[in-house]
Amino acid sequence: MSAHDLRDDDVLPTDPSQSGARPSELRAERAEPAVEASSQSRLGMWLDHHLYSLVASVGRLLRKPWAALLTIGVMAVALALPLGLWAALNNIERFAGDVQRSRQISVFLKPQLKVERARALAEELRARPDVGGVELRTPEQGLAELREKSGLAEALAAVESNPLPSLLVVTPKSDELALAQSLEQLGEADVVQHDAGWRQRLDGWLRFGTRLAWVLAAMLGLGALLVVGNTVRLDIQSRRDEIAVLQQLGATDGFIRRPFLYLGASYGLAAGAVALALLTAADHSLRESLSALAQSYGSRFALQGFDLLHALGILAGAAALGWLGAGLVTGHYLRQTRGGQG
């Protein structure tokens, strides 16, 4: 019974002296709990239908396992390709080394320059606003490092004097190209070595690869959208009579669309999980051989996969992609049927 079905004698006392409240106030007090109960009942029904739609969608997937696996597999491959390229670019960027180190400028001072003057020059450069840091390597330090790493200790022992100059390793704070040109003008500088060219080319390739990953993600994402849309379209066609009966009974488009939305989201979520599993398997299959290759170059580089936050984002994005595909197809079908009925 709703609030509108209640009569005055149902909510009012027979004797007005039994209550000091007005009849209108008593009707409002009785009507408010009824309206609140009705709202709670509608919310419960809405939640129940969402839960039923979700369970029914999963059940439809399980009733057709081979067809579902085929759809999920195609979507998973479409998702795994751009994600794998993106992960590979991130690992290449890490393998390129420390960017701050690649920006360093080596200033070889003139051989006749004294170490005291080299130290003073280093202090002068540290005071410059465009310099982040300066490291001085004396001729003795350079000779000791050369003996240790080159394997020419016996040949270097025969050299009477140290031929190496003092070296200043300058770390730029802003534009390294402008700083390198400025350091070339120093009277104490003999050779200024700046290895920014290869880094700029590598950055260009990485930017191109990132753009390529986004283009592939858009194209393959559209393919995954079409796959789940076509699958949901076939499911709609098989339930066409059921949908027609629901429309005749006055069901809203949202009520009819909801199970198909959960079906598309289930496809997307499963495809995202399979894509992550494929990428994880590829990571484990390549990790050992790549680690051995990196160790041969004296590096401890190792492949880095997706962390938990990125994995959850991938799953959410894949589910949203499936939801969107199902929503587009279902909405188009419902507009056609409503138009045909009109």
How would you briefly describe this protein structure?
With 342 residues, the protein is an alpha+beta fold. It has twelve helices and four strands; from the N terminus they run H-H-H-H-E-H-E-H-H-E-H-E-H-H-H-H.
Task: Describe what this molecule looks like in 3D.
The chain is 72% helix and 7% strand. The protein is of the alpha+beta class. The protein folds into 2 domains: 49-98 and 200-341, no CATH class; 105-194, Alpha-Beta Plaits (2-Layer Sandwich), CATH 3.30.70.3040. It has a 4-stranded antiparallel beta sheet. Helix 9 (196-238) packs parallel to helix 12 and helix 11 (253-296) packs antiparallel against helix 12. The longest helix has 44 residues, at 253-296. 20% of the residues are buried.
Number of domains: 2
How many beta-strand elements? Answer: 4
Derived structural class: alpha+beta
Unreliable spans are: 1-32
- Distance, first to last CA: 35 Å
For the largest beta sheet, what order do the strands appear in spatially?
A: 2-3-1-4
User: What's the alpha carbon Rg, rounded to whole Å?
Assistant: 36 Å
Into which percentage range does the β-strand content fall? 5-15%
Instruction: Assign a percent range to the helix content.
Output: over 70%
Give the helix tally: 12
The SSE string, one letter per element, is HHHHEHEHHEHEHHHH
Major sheet attributes: 4 strands, antiparallel
Nearest-integer average pLDDT: 75
What general form does the structure show? Answer: elongated
